[in-house]
Amino acid sequence: MTRVLFAALMITTLTAGVTSAYVLQANSSTTTVERDRAASLYKSGKTEEALIILKQVVKANPTDDQAWLVMGLAQLQRQDVKGAAKSFETSLKLNSKLPLAHVGLSYTLLMRNKLSDAVREAEIALGLNSHLENAHFVIGAARLRTGARQDAVDHAEVAIKQNPQFAAAHLLKSQALVAFISDALVGDKNEARDISKRRYAEAAAALEKYLQLSPAAPDRQTWAEQLESLRFYSGNKQGGDVVYRGSEVTTKAHVRSKPEPEYTAAALSNNVRGTVVLRGVFTADGKVKHLLILQSLPMGLTEVCIAAAHRIKFDPATLNGKPVSMYIQLEYNFDTH
């Protein structure tokens, strides 16, 4: 089975979406002045200040389920997945009817590759509130990771319909469409050319929308390069360089050295596991080009894999004694154990 791309959830986008929903709940009789102040600080991007206040609030009143919820969201903002999971779990022990706590917990499970648990929590959230686009996003990301590409597209489109400004949903849709066409990159002759072209165009359009909605995203450069790679594989490329499949060359490219990427500190501390899968081209002149992300991981792991891929040394493939460019697929596995 073809490995598919795991949608990297943009923490800042996710938390922005759930913040607005939190505010709708905040006017309850149990809301304290301090918790309100912390929520306002969090919404304005002052995460550390919010966390200081929230820790004081839950210490003074450990049964404040809403305070634990907002603290979990703030911890997600600073990429403290373990701490966020504990806060969401505490919030749900106090009040199992908080849909946003279920969504937040589902994301932390997704990050740790516990896909069935992530889907379960997201579905519980939707049972409590069917208009949570973030829950559809988590389910779609998990479905994509297990190979259910159409489910991923469907959930991404529902999330987009509910909130057209939800950037991460556009990214998920693009990644799911790339998963559909990934086999065609190395010559799936059973895929009709017009269908493949349409999916490339749709994937590129969704990715363009994501980039438009996320001008300050920390991984913007990565996805901008992905967009250029999509254009290359769709045929909208400059020059007449021919790229061959492995089955079409006389001798395949021979890798002489393949540097391994290192865990980022954030990914290691949060126990992020999984596989990054890239497609690209080993060119006739010995360069690695046109890298396309088929499966990604968050917290900088995809970026370190791309950097490592560009450092690969190889002998080019040959055809009738002449060096030629060849499609390749690269996989990088991360396991904290």
Quick overview:
With 337 residues, the protein is an alpha+beta fold. The chain is built from 14 helices and 7 strands. It has 2 domains: 11-213, Serine Threonine Protein Phosphatase 5, Tetratricopeptide repeat (Alpha Horseshoe), CATH 1.25.40.10; 238-334, TolA/TonB C-terminal domain, CATH 3.30.2420.10.
What gap, in angstroms, lies between the N and C termini? 25 Å
The CATH architecture assignment of the largest domain turns out to be Alpha Horseshoe
Main CATH class of the largest domain: Mainly Alpha
Any idea what the radius of gyration is?
22 Å
Order of helices and strands: HHHHHHHHHHHHEEHEEHEEE
Portion in helices: 55-70%
Strand proportion, as a percent range, falls in 5-15%
How many β-strand runs?
Answer: 7
- The dominant shape is elongated
Question: At the fourth CATH level, what is the homologous superfamily of the largest domain?
Answer: Tetratricopeptide repeat domain
Task: Fill in the CATH topology of the largest domain.
Answer: Serine Threonine Protein Phosphatase 5, Tetratricopeptide repeat
- Domains, number: 2
Low-confidence segments: 1-31
Structural description of this entry:
It is a single chain. This protein is α+β, with helices and mostly antiparallel strands and 337 residues long. The protein has helices at 11-25, 33-43, 47-60, 65-77, 81-94, 99-111, 115-128, 133-145, 149-162, 167-181, 193-213, 220-233, 265-269, 301-310; strands at residues 243-244, 254-257, 274-282, 288-295, 313-315, 317-319, 322-334. The protein has two domains: 11-213, Serine Threonine Protein Phosphatase 5, Tetratricopeptide repeat, CATH 1.25.40.10; 238-334, TolA/TonB C-terminal domain. It has 14 helices and seven strands. The longest helix is centred in the middle third of the chain and has 21 residues, at 193-213. The chain starts with 10 loop residues before the first helix and ends with a strand. 46% of the residues are buried.
